[in-house]
Amino acid sequence: MEHDFIDKYSRTESFLSRLDPRIKMISLLLFIVCVVTTDPEAFHAFAVYGLLLAVLAGLSRIPIADLLKRMFTAVPFILMTAFFIPFMQGKTAVRAFDLGPVTLTVTREGLILFWNVLIKASLSLLCAVLMTATTRFPELLKALENLRCPRVLIMILSFMYRYIFVVLDEFMMMRRAKDSRSVGGGRWFHVKALAGMIGVLFIRSFERAESVYLAMCSRGFTGRIRTLREFRFAMRDAAFLMMVLASLAAARFLGGVHG
Amino acid sequence: MAEHVVEIRNLHCTYPDGTKALSGIDLDVIQGEALGIIGPNGAGKSTLLLHLNGILRSNRSVKVLGREVTEENLPLIRSKVGLVFQDPENQLFMPTVSDDVGFGPINLGLGKENVRDTVRRALEEVDMLHCLNRSPHHLSFGEKKRVAVATVLSMRPEILVLDEPSSNLDPGHRREIIALIRRLPLTKVIASHDLGLVAELCARIALMDGGRVVAIGETADILGNRPLLEDYCMLDHPH
User: Fold this and answer.
1) What is the pTM of this model?
2) Scanning A253, A258, B30, B122, which has its CA 20 to 30 A from the CA of A95?
3) Do A218 and B78 count as a contact with CB atoms less than 8 A apart?
């Protein structure tokens, strides 16, 4: 069965996909740090960040709608946590909602903070989406390893990437088998069947993990995964990093002037 | 006298849940031969294979290349005995094909250039060099089987152990994998239900049932003995 939600675009050739993944990773971190530490009312700065992302999205040759779709999968979580911020304590009330026993007051400070959380999270997310969509997952892992990310985390991610599709396949096959035999039956019956399937899936994955471990041992695994890393820092990587740095500096400068 | 690369004497194995998987196996593998292991489901074939490179160690009854299978001999034995598992999904666990084929050689401590070379050669041997940087989950089942063979070839083993090499393959890919196995100049131990494959590749066959070797001999003698095969569920058109 075909699943491509992780590397749908990883084989799209573009300027961004050819960059050294370490450079992309570092740029992403720089971008996030800059965005997060920008003054909430430095609107020009946010415009520059947005412009930079728009240029990068253009360079990535990935349909903008897909990038936004990926970003918006995470936005509900942000909204959930940010929803009550506008009603926080503040000096300047903007508007009050009378809900019988309680009165909710929207304050200017609250609104600014709300905007702050929303814009910063969205920009950071979009940048992360761009980075992951233009980098093949194995390369991403190697870049992380190269940048001294803890080994255990990389191993977990690497097995996740390798086996999530296998587990999904197993689940889909089980569900087909169930669907082809379940005629009628109440909703509760189906929920119970689903619970059973999840249990079976867990046990199968557990047993598969054991087989995989045996396969690793028979090829000399001693507790440490080692791979060949080969990244080459090219001219375009340096150029890209300079461009990112320049844009971030410009954004911070503009933010400083008007903030 | 031909050299025995594997000697098994009175091998017993009981799984932790109490299932007796092997009860007194005696078996020799002769250098350069291809030995087929056949037998009904649950006969203990896979368990026997797991003893050949020390994944399972029941008692001191297995000798590989003249060495007892002990903790200190394990690295050597595992590099000399290449075990290909039945399910390639379990055999291929790294994010890319090249990482996976390189996994063994890197663990053996080969240098960078050497590893890269070995990986290319192993993939060439199974005609999969074009998939070097693909992810295993993007390969077809037949391709996964071939890459799985490459992952142990890259360790330059002397003995190749294959568990059901043709299972779940369509006739065309089955032919390919048979041709591939035949090409490899190694000692081979092949466990399979596929009597056609065993007949084509192996000169000697051991028939297992209930954790024992119940018959062993030349391929023609074993496969020609229809009553024997019928007794052990190995024929699909019994008389």
Assistant:
1) 0.80
2) A258
3) yes
